[in-house]
Amino acid sequence: MSRLFFILISLITSQALATNVENLYSAQAEIATQDELERQQLAPIILQKVLSKVVGDSEALASKDITYLLEQSDYLVKQYAYVRSYSAGNEAEQSLSLTFNEQALNDSLRAMELPVWAKTRPEVLFWLVIREGDQQTVFGTEQLTSPLIKIINAQVAIRGVPLFFPLMDLEDEEQLKFLDSSKELDDINSFTLASERYNPEVILLGVVNKEEESIGISWQWLFSGERQQFKTEGELSEALRSGINIFTNNLAKQVTDVDKQYVKQEHLLRVSLVEDFKDYSRVTSYLTNLKHVSKVTIRTLEASELELSIVLDAGLHFFEQALEEDKLLSKKKLSSRGSNLEYRLNP
Hints:
Blueprint: H1 3-13, E1 18-20, E2 26-30, H2 36-55, H3 58-62, H4 67-71, H5 73-76, E3 77-85, E4 93-100, H6 102-111, E5 120-122, E6 124-132, E7 135-138, H7 147-159, E8 163-164, H8 170-175, H9 190-195, E9 202-209, E10 216-223, E11 226-233, H10 236-255, E12 265-272, H11 277-288, E13 293-302, E14 305-312, H12 316-326, E15 329-331, E16 342-345
Parallel strand pairs: 6-8, 6-9, 12-16
Antiparallel strand pairs: 1-5, 2-4, 3-4, 6-7, 9-10, 10-11, 12-14, 13-14, 15-16
């Protein structure tokens, strides 16, 4: 074995315990034109794809009413681009790629008491076994072009999971010589021992049983010494997607830091051109009834400037967006006092 080949193998098999997942706040969808209205209509659909990756737990996401968040999707867009893809013998397909404002989206999710799964996520080593009669096939990197592997890779990309497959070289084959894929995935299981060279944080085992009338997949996974298991059934591609979804939901529940939830923030707001009691009532009544404002406290009213303390139960981005849309207050340029919450009352 040459020195270069040895170094390459070492790099491949020395996986890090966790990795930063790229493009969590970006997603794409097919679009027919480059019309602004169509782009705005597609924004909620693309945002839902991003939420699936950022929240991680689809069950937690389904438990909340995210209608308002989706309605604000166009305002959360940080960047957009049109992407063309080409395939032999077919016309070019056009997709809309949207990247959303990370901080504004995270604040909004936490305000809704939804988890935010950090970009640094545990890497998952996936052992996929096809069992048919007495034959057992373990998939490795040589099968990356297999339709089954493509289905799995597409699904983990949708869910934001860093997953990789074993090499299934001579060393792996030796470790799995006497494998029994029905055994419990514990510390002395053949798959666990064969995983040591890869140093993964999570070991996932999926055993496809083709002996039954309908396809059944037995899933086991090992994380921080804790084993979990479940089964999926049905058409093979759907059973694989369903298994990846169940696994991701449970992994996200286990690793999401619940202590980093959104804390309601108090902000100082100054409004000028408040000349009389009518102006004062317009401002205070408007702010008190504004969505996501949970508390308004009057501090001072001097020289036609009203100073208030407001408490928001969502990100500041949504508050400022509401003010811009309603047009009762206009934002001033950054003042010498350094506050960016300085507005003037419009006539």
